[in-house]
Design goal:
Helix content: 25-40%
Distance between the termini: 148 Å
Shape: elongated
Number of strands: 19
Largest sheet: 5 strands, antiparallel
Structural class: alpha+beta
Strand order of the largest sheet: 1-2-7-8-9
Number of helices: 19
Strand content: 5-15%
Length: about 800
């Protein structure tokens, strides 16, 4: 085994010492002994040193023996070609004798050797022409060679620099790909061929997630474009859930590669592959893979761009805004579908154009998603006046105030609260002009939006319903300030209020999300034929049923059906049988009105949000034009003339739109407004969500059974629709007896003791107003008149059915 073997006869080379001769299918010498095969310093035969390899040290040889000691003695060598001094790095060997494993790397690939790192220093394969004389089956150590044809000099490395000859023309490194590697490369074991970084369980799982979600996205896209009506939940999965899982899968895939890389780096050079991915386009196999990656990446980018664009469009759609958060956005979305802006996308008003507005809206949306998940949102949702975009950027994209001029005819159907549901039509002209002086007079509704004018106001509440301060800057530069005389704020407090410049949204604050009151909603339904006007009292019955407080939608539907059908079954049984279909149609219409305007889960109905268009159900225009905002310089109020903004309404018969309206001299209001009624706000009687009263008692909250209520208000109130003056009570009550004539009673006014419209003194409070010393007098309850007779003798106690009783003193003492 230690015989000297000359490989190439005649070559002026130092002898190569045979380490071990094995069969062609062996690749390593026996374990347990380390055999070095290094020639002596001088030519000649020499016996190779051998020493046991210590298994207790990782790559450690003894100081005097082993390959390391032999290598230290062979740092220089003379050859026939001359003397060459070579210094090679020391290498650590495996604890178990035998050929060391190569450094990590891709299967069948080579890596450049590096100094100072653990691992074997393996030379490249020599040209076959230089080794034809090698015996087949020989395993030789080439570490002693300094020149071997075109084979480069290699460092001594024991079995790490061995060559196995399997056939005359088959020279194979035992641990490398046939054909060797490039000059200076490091072969990688065939056993671990293909061990890329992604070949681990974590990356496999991430890749599976990516593949599965990609298939789901493709399938969802097919469904999305195949449906005639977009589905909000399919859109959520297509553009939000699935892409999120796709991204998560990709991150898991990369995490697995990173984790595998760290594992290989921690284990060191004894592992089977490289810790970092490599790209070698000189390798056909890698070029092919790289081409696949480029094509797949391009297709992936196109798919991602397509999905991203559609995701952007989906988040900008009405479906995304209104149908995803079903409960929260149901009131706004329902009102939007029935509004004049039903074909305008939500984002065109609520989200500005450009990336900055988009990012801002999505950040706000993230907060709203959090509030939705944890149910931290308020009910009802407050109006976001602070966050609204300026009207110049929203409304004026379609509506140009500068070109507002002329008047607009408005015809409002109205049915009476009587048995015949008397149909009427209220017509008026709205003076919508005032945008620009060149187009006519500026005394119209849009006078506030004249380009030369600036109207500024200050409100005390977030919804801007209470406005105590107004300032107008005219086109000529003059400024006028108005302050409400009802305001209790000091000048300093008024100055501290935030200022707002009037724009469209201050009056048109509900341009889309409108919740109509039951009265006008029923009028429109009757005018459209959804409710049969021939049904007696149908207007009154329907409105009274709608204004009831129902717990939820099911109870409301049941209550509306019971109220309407029950009324006719009880009061008009024959009609209920004859017109059962019309009654059911009226029930369905009432349910539709309720579903449009009332949302119990969000505590929203027609009384929740003020609508400042006009002034019928809410103060609206009268927030400023109430006659109580006085100029700080002239003392004159802001005008409250009705004809400034519209003509006086005209009442007439209900006719189809477009027909000539016959002239009428009838007052537009059911009765003429005089006195205080001509000054109070319309919304005082026509409050949203309530049926307007039809009698004085109904408006003034007076019981229909109160004394004298059937005699008419003008019996006591001398001036029409005014509280004062009133008639002298003695004109009717000329004879008064008992205590009316005693003490200070003759000098008192009747209303000091007799509450208006009630007249009967029923308690002690009225008397105790003057008789403060009698608060603890006798009984703690009951009326004073139960004992003190205002019709007979003051000194006697009143006992019903028994005439005059004992003295008051005796009664108080219990006698």
């Amino acid at each position: 085994m230690d015989d000297e073997v000359h490989v190439l006869e005649g070559a002026s080379l130092p002898p190569i010492h045979l380490v071990h001769v094995v069969e062609a299918d062996h690749a390593a010498p026996p374990r347990g002994r380390w055999r070095s095969a290094f020639p002596p310093r001088t030519p000649g035969r020499a016996r190779a040193e051998s020493a046991p390899y210590p298994a207790s040290r990782r790559g450690g040889e003894t100081a005097a023996t082993g390959p390391r000691a032999a290598f230290q003695r062979l740092r220089g060598r003379n050859s026939s070609a001359g003397t060459m001094a070579r210094s090679y790095p020391m290498v650590r060997r495996r604890a178990t004798p035998g050929p060391a494993r190569p450094t990590r790397g891709a299967a069948g690939k080579c890596r450049s050797p590096r100094r100072g790192r653990e691992g074997s220093f393996l030379p490249p394969a020599p040209p076959p022409e230089s080794l034809k004389s090698l015996p087949i089956g020989d395993l030789v150590d080439l570490g002693n060679m300094t020149n071997f044809g075109s084979f480069p000099p290699t460092p001594p490395g024991g079995s790490g620099a061995t060559l196995l000859k399997k056939a005359p023309d088959d020279y194979t490194w035992p641990y490398s790909k046939p054909g060797g590697c490039e000059r200076g490369g490091v072969p990688v074991s065939e056993k671990h061929k293909g061990r890329e970084l992604y070949r681990n369980a974590v990356s496999y799982f991430g890749g599976l997630v990516v593949a599965a979600t990609a298939v789901l996205i493709a399938f969802a896209l097919i469904l999305e474009f195949g449906l005639s009506r977009p589905s909000p939940y399919l859109g959520i999965f297509t553009y939000m859930v699935f892409p999120a899982f796709l991204t998560l899968g990709g991150l898991i895939f990369l995490y697995g590669m990173r984790r595998e890389s760290l594992r290989r780096r921690k284990l060191g050079p004894e592992t089977e592959a490289l810790p970092y991915p490599r790209l070698d386009l000189n390798d056909p196999r890698q070029r092919k893979r790289f081409a696949y990656v480029l094509v797949g990446g391009f297709v992936g980018l196109v798919l991602m761009g397509f999905v991203s664009y559609n995701a952007f469009m989906f988040t900008e759609s009405v479906t995304f805004c209104g149908r995803i958060c079903h409960t929260i956005m149901q009131p706004e979305y329902t009102a939007y579908l029935h509004s004049p802006h039903a074909r305008v996308k939500c984002v065109e008003c609520h989200v500005g154009s450009g990336a900055s507005w988009y990012v801002k809206s999505k950040m706000s949306g993230a907060r709203q998603v959090f509030a939705t998940i944890f149910h931290t949102y308020p009910t009802p949702i407050p109006v976001p006046i602070k966050n609204l975009r300026p009207a110049r950027e929203t409304c004026e994209e379609c509506h140009w105030p500068k070109k507002f001029y002329g008047a607009q005819l408005v015809q409002i159907p109205h049915f009476g609260y009587d048995e015949k549901n008397t149909p009427e039509e209220i017509s008026l002209l709205l003076k919508i002009g005032g945008g620009e002086t060149a187009l006519g007079a500026t005394s119209g509704i849009h006078w506030h939006m004249i380009l030369g004018n600036t109207v500024t106001f200050a409100a005390t509440d977030p919804q801007q319903e209470n406005i105590p301060w107004v300032e107008v800057k005219h086109a000529d530069g003059t400024t006028e300030t108005f302050v409400s005389k009802d305001s209790k704020l000091t000048p300093a407090q008024l100055a501290a209020l935030p200022r707002h410049t009037v724009d469209c949204i201050d009056c048109h604050n509900r341009p889309t999300h409108i919740f109509p009151s039951p009265g006008p909603a029923v009028d429109n339904a009757m005018a459209a034929g959804a409710i049969d006007p021939s049904l007696p009292w149908i207007k009154k019955v329907t409105v009274d049923a709608l204004v009831q407080n129902y717990i939820n939608r099911p109870s409301a539907r049941e209550g509306l059906k019971k109220a309407i059908t029950g009324y006719y079954e009880k009061n008009y049984p024959d009609l209920a049988k004859a017109k059962g279909a019309q009654i059911q149609q009226a029930v369905n219409a009432a349910i539709g009105i309720y579903d449009r305007s009332v949302f119990p889960a969000m505590k929203v109905n027609w009384t929740t949000y003020a609508n400042n268009i006009g002034h019928r159900n809410w103060p609206g225009c009268f927030r400023c034009h109430d006659g109580r905002h006085l100029s700080t310089t002239t003392g004159k109020p802001i005008t409250r003339s009705c004809t400034t903004c519209h003509t006086m309404p005209q009442r007439g018969p209900l006719v189809p739109l477009g027909q000539v309206m016959p002239a009428s001299t009838e007052n537009w209001h059911p009765w003429e407004l005089k006195g205080k009624h001509a000054e109070i706000l319309c919304s005082r009687c026509h409050a949203a969500g309530y049926r307007p009263p039809e009698t004085c008692a109904g408006c003034h909250k007076i019981s229909e059974k109160a004394p004298m209520i059937e005699m008419g208000c003008d019996t006591c109130h001398l001036k029409a629709q005014e509280v004062q003056p009133i008639v002298d009570c003695k004109s009717c009550h000329s004879s008064l007896g008992g205590l009316h004539l005693k003490g200070g009673h003759p000098d008192a006014s009747c209303t000091d003791c007799h509450k208006p419209h009630t007249f009967v003194v029923t308690g002690r409070t009225t008397c105790e107003t003057c008789h403060t010393d009698k608060v603890n007098h006798y009984k703690s309850d009951g009326a004073c008149t139960n004992c003190h007779d205002f019709k007979g003798d003051q000194a006697r106690l009143v006992r019903p059915g028994a005439g005059r009783g004992p003295s008051l003193m005796a009664a108080h003492l219990g006698a």
